[in-house]
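Deliverable D4.2, example record:
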Amino acid sequence: MEEYGKHVLSIEGRKILKLEGVQHVGSFDEHEITLDTNMGFLQLKGEGMHITHLNLDQGSLVVEGFIHGLEYLEGRTAKGSKARSKGFIHRLLK
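Output generated by the structure prediction step:
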């Protein structure tokens, strides 16, 4: 089994999400947060979500709001997701 480092995710009452293993936050608003973790790309969906704590040196993140769901997606990164989508739209509109 491959070693990825510490990766811990906990959700308290669907209102507080705590995550260890965060490497990069790609985008965030009240309905969606995308991030790279040491276990892959993670997409959080919810309502009224706010990042209340972020420490990339320690890899920790705390999100408060109402969590609808989360999904790990293979073959995608938070760093390049916006740049790729802008490039695709730009090519369509040429």
